[in-house]
Write a structure and sequence with these properties.
Blueprint lengths: L3 E6 L6 H13 L2 E6 L11 H12 L5 E5 L4 H8 L3 E6 L2 H18 L2 E6 L9 H9 L10 H10 L2
Parallel strand pairs: 1-2, 1-4, 2-3, 4-5
Bound molecules: 4'-phosphopantetheine.
């Protein structure tokens, strides 16, 4: 049986921190589906179609990783595609506090498991939100996202 996992997130846009988690999830499961959803409490830089396009390009080197958008509950998406687990990265205690109730709610709703992977130390301070803020004021974001993503972010502020 194919063991399929989902890596959900806003990915606005995908960062090197996300890609590290996605690559490691791809080593643990037969297939990984990176799923872009909408966090209703966050503002957007890239439209859903753009986030998908950026993700597709970023995960192209990983043969068992694909990309999809989802609307509604992540647990319903997991059920639709037969995923056995949700994989999330944790940069630290703040992420854990945010992610734990979501993992517990999702387990309550359908029994889907959440697997937490510790984020690499080098990515501990890397977030899409901070990268966008640094870029908005002309700072150097080249260490935190693939080059083509940095270009797309910079283009927003030209
Ligand atoms: O990038 P984020 O903010 O960590 O992404 C969060 C996201 C989009 C994965 C999360 O908000 C989500 O799963 N939303 C879909 C709606 C849902 O299932 N909400 C209940 C979670 S318990």
């Amino acid at each position: 049986m194919t063991r399929r996992a989902v890596c959900p997130g806003s990915f606005d846009p995908v960062t090197n921190g996300h890609l590290d988690i996605i690559e490691r999830a791809a080593g643990l499961f037969d297939e990984v589906v990176v799923a872009t959803g909408t966090n209703v409490s966050k503002s957007r830089m890239f439209a859903p179609e753009e986030r998908l396009e950026i993700l597709r390009q970023a995960v192209a080197p990983f043969p068992n990783v694909s990309v999809a958008g989802f609307e509604g509950l992540i647990v319903d998406f997991c059920r639709e595609i037969g995923a056995v687990a949700i994989v999330k990265g944790l940069r630290g205690a703040t992420d854990y506090e945010y992610e734990l109730p979501m993992a517990q709610m999702n387990a309550h709703l359908t029994g889907v498991e959440t697997v937490f992977l510790p984020g690499a130390v080098a990515n501990a301070f890397v977030s899409s939100s901070l990268i966008k803020e640094v870029a908005a004021f002309g700072g150097d974001i080249s260490a935190f996202v693939p080059d083509f993503v940095a270009e797309r972010i910079r283009a927003r502020f030209d």
